């Protein structure tokens, strides 16, 4: 029974592999360093948003966990060709580890919204923005504060810089996904 639930069809495996590849490709662009905090502006987090939105909670989560498993093994798939446990547990670790839950939260929120018939462009954007941007930035800031031995407020304040870019990425993720959704990707 459990085996049946976690086993994937060839189609699903292909979709997951493609999503892992897309997230990796978005990491080819090196991050833009900010200088005053050790957290770059990246494009890769848009792939995490798309994973939850396009693939749904199950396949999106599998794709992101697989991606980060490869990173943990040392594959240089994070922005600018970085990888390994040292990177995952470094100053940006809070953002990276929060990504593990983003597809689940986006996917389940969208399903709930669809059930009640409230998912329009704007509601979809708000869901992606809340979980894919704001939630990640908030948890990332807590982790960052701990790493830098500072208090949460300055770490959170420095994250306000990311809100603008992440909002644009959420808009792009919704725009791309809504165009692609007619192709059946998630089961
Ligand atoms: C890494 O490659 O080490 C992860 C970097 C995490 C960067 C975070 S994700 C949310 C926020 N938006 C950005 O563009 N950068 C930060």
UniProtKB/TrEMBL annotation:
Membrane-spanning ranges: 15-43, 55-75, 95-114, 126-145, 151-174
Keyword set, alphabetical order: Cell membrane, Membrane, Transmembrane, Transmembrane helix, Transport
Domain of life: Bacteria
Subcellular location: Cell membrane
A Pfam family: BioY
Membrane topology qualifier: Multi-pass membrane protein
Family in the record: Belongs to the BioY family.
Protein name listed in UniProt: Biotin transporter
The organism of origin for this protein: Limosilactobacillus agrestis
